[in-house]
Amino acid sequence: MEHRFSNGRLLRLVQGDITRLAADAIANAANAALAGGGGVDGAIHRAGGPAIMSELDEIRARIGRCPAGGAVATTAGRLPARFVFHAVGPVYRDGRHGEPEALASCYRTCLDLAEERKLGSLSFPAISTGVYGYPLNEAAEIAVGAVAGYLAREAVTVHEAVFVLFLEEAYEAFAAALCRWAGEQVE
Ligand code: ADP
Questions:
Q1: Distance from C-alpha of 187 to C-alpha of 171, rounded to nearest angstrom
Q2: Does the 2-184 domain belong in CATH 3.30.1330.30?
């Protein structure tokens, strides 16, 4: 599924493994310690190789932890990308402890990092919807709203953003959220 904005930018949804899809930058769902983990983070480090963790070691030595809502950039090792943006999603509690804002901020920070580097394409996993427990439909609404809102602006260098959803239920949730978002724009 895809949505083309009036400024020509494209938002796509695909089901699959984010490490297999080429993009200028791949966003990762990292943890605040930038220390590596399971899920999509494990897949990215396995596929990209040890260069990514060496760079994160240096970043960690410099800045310590990365707060929820933030992201740091490394190169992408063997991945079919130039950069990985390690975004730290919020751990879901009840949705009333700043989780929506932090989740939206993850996506926007990655898009800012892409803009700073004048990149054309960026792929995202469904941040926080695995171990961090964010309810899928709420996370999809926030993710689609943040990325679509960003791409709809003028003069962004990112011409294509892709949500790569590992599980079918995640794909369905994001597809429904994108349909709703697009419908609201027409009214
Ligand atoms: P978090 O800690 O932010 O919840 P997880 O890695 O546990 O991060 O899960 C985030 C999402 O990434 C989940 O929806 C999970 O199904 C998905 N995921 C896991 N492996 C991959 C992969 N290889 N490519 C894309 N998404 C993946």
A1: 25
A2: no
Strands 83-88 and 10-15: unpaired
Active-site residue flag, 94: no
> Pick the catalytic residue: 41, 57, 94, 112?
41
Give mean pLDDT in consecutive 10-residue pieces for the chain, a chain of 187 residues: 96 98 98 94 98 98 97 98 98 98 98 98 98 98 98 91 98 98 82
Mutation test residue for ligand 1: of 166, 171, 174, the one with most atoms within 8 Å of CB? 166
Q: Is the CB of 126 under 6 A from ligand 1?
A: yes
The pairing of beta strand 10-15 with beta strand 160-165? parallel
